[in-house]
Amino acid sequence: MIPLQQVWPDELARLYRERGYWRGETFPGFLRERAAEHPDRVAVTGGDGTSWTYGELFSKAETNAAGFLALGLQPGDRVVVQLGNIPEFLSVVCGLFVAGLIPVYALPAHRLTEIVHFAQKSEAAAYVIAERYDNFDYRTLAREVVAAVPAIKNVIVVGEAEEFVALSSFKANAALLPADPSPSSVAFLQISGGSTGLSKLIPRTHDDYIYSFRASAEICGLDADSVYMSALPVAHNFPMSSPGVFGALYAGSRVVMCPSPSPETAFALIEREKVTITGLVPPLALLWMQAAPKTSYDLSSLQILQVGGAKFMPEAARRVKGSLGCTLQQVFGMAEGLVNYTRLDDPYEIIVETQGRPISADDEVLIVDDQGNPVPEGEPGNLLTRGPYTIRGYHNDPGANSRSFTEDGFYRTGDVVKRTPEGYLVVQGRATDHINRAGEKISAEEIEDHLLAHPSVFDAAVVSLPDPFLGEKSCAFVIPQGEQPKASELKAFMRTRKVADFKVPDQIVFVSEFQTTAVGKISRKELRAKLRADFLEKKA
Ligand code: OOB
């Protein structure tokens, strides 16, 4: 098994400890502490009203930890977790942490192709699902996963397990529980948005991740009276840690798991649970702002609406206060690390016009041209970063690591930003070829590969097009061979590829050739840029 690690150079690790960012905390350690400090305070509430106190959450985590180990899993083993916004998400992943097992976070939208990739890449030994979520039976998916990945020895199901193992069958057994993991060890694997090909795996340590959500909770002013609602899929880094469910648990706040971000479901929960803070991607923020004036639900408890994952346009940002009556916080982050926030007491213009500034004084931010030279202050350039919670490399991916990191360990974010005189970042665009579809990052290359598998596709180039609602939508330019297939046929074909539904191209445009320059071969990147520009120009 390829060892999991995330290593910073000694002098930086020393600095991060000296400055108090890395305090030697671990997930099991802080959860146990909170359970001891306020065992009877409610930690998490589900959409159906199920509530567990901090004491109950930790005791369920210990029971689940023993259950996983009793199945024969060994500390250090990887476990793919595909659960939606239900309280069991927390009892399962906290159980894995207590057992020293490593969650690999999949989204509910992922299907066979993605799950097999995560399982193989992480060398996973088990897979946790819910019986159903969002009208999909995950047991049918699990059967295909097990057939494709024999190393998955156990499937654990929240709900009716059929031939698999029911989470509810797990029994407490303190004798099985190991000592807490080392704070510098990898706690879990997060999934990258991925601009080239398949998603990469992001190893995050206890020390670095806990710092990021502890500091985030402080920036957002979370305390015992706060109620954080996860409206986005909780496996995303944003609702998980910015400050997310873990920042909320760290601060002793209450977490609400919202099963759908639709205004109907979310507004009802805001009223019922007196939610004080939640986070959305821009398209959902627009939807909420549209629905709020007409709703009969009482949204007055909501103090902070965070918006991030994709660019929130200033015009929309200016409407938040008027329509939802709360403070806007812009969040510009990435699963690889760096997270920027506008601060709650920032001047209004900074809140609506910028994507915030880094969490840490020791987040190093460089803005450089394509040759790697710093651009003049205030000019747009490529954002590079390193710091106390930004990874130094992906798991087992030398190719991606040489592309995505500089020799001195800066992560190339792929984002084009400029910096204001006050040190706030404004996202201008992106240098890499992915589509940011309502906050879900889609790799153009990955979709092209699927389309090329269709017998009537000679070549395909996938690009992003502006969309008033989604921010960006995906468009596939396809050169057919033989008889031209219908667009609907290609979309149906994409579904047979067993990928997340958000990866099916929104639009398909058939072309007879890709105009390449006289010089001959142009890069895929240039080709995509040209197709996109020509198409938008024709439409204008
Ligand atoms: C968050 O994380 P990821 O890993 O899904 O995506 C990261 C990328 C960034 O590199 C950037 O391209 C884009 O998403 N992005 C934004 C943005 N926030 C993220 N682009 C413009 N404006 C923003 N506010 O998306 C994520 C992780 C933690 C917190 C928030 C978002």
TrEMBL record:
Under InterPro entries, the record lists: AMP-bd_C (IPR025110), AMP-bd_C_sf (IPR045851), AMP-binding_CS (IPR020845), AMP-dep_synth/lig_dom (IPR000873), ATP-dep_AMP-bd_enzyme (IPR050237), DHB_AMP_lig (IPR011963)
Q: Which UniProt keywords apply?
A: Ligase, Nucleotidyltransferase, Transferase
| Pathway this chain belongs to | Siderophore biosynthesis
Gene3D superfamilies membership: 3.30.300.30, 3.40.50.980, Luciferase, Domain 3
**Residue span, AMP-binding enzyme C-terminal domain:** 446-521
Highest taxon listed in the record's lineage: Bacteria
Its Enzyme Commission number(s) read 2.7.7.58
Q: What is this protein called?
A: (2,3-dihydroxybenzoyl)adenylate synthase
Source species? Aquamicrobium zhengzhouense
